[in-house]
Write a structure and sequence with these properties.
alpha+beta; 1 helix; about 35% helix
């Protein structure tokens, strides 16, 4: 799970939490970047 945030007066931050079961995450980079961009747009 990941949380994107932007506190007043600060830049965007992302906190990434590993899965509970300890397995790795495998994502397409373009999909991950798209999700990050969507998150940033919703926080503006």
């Amino acid at each position: 799970m990941a949380e994107v945030s932007r506190e007043p007066g600060q830049s965007f931050r992302i906190e990434i939490y590993p899965p509970v079961e300890g397995k790795k995450w495998a994502l397409e980079l373009k999909d991950f970047l798209s999700l990050l961009n969507q998150s940033m747009e919703s926080l503006k």
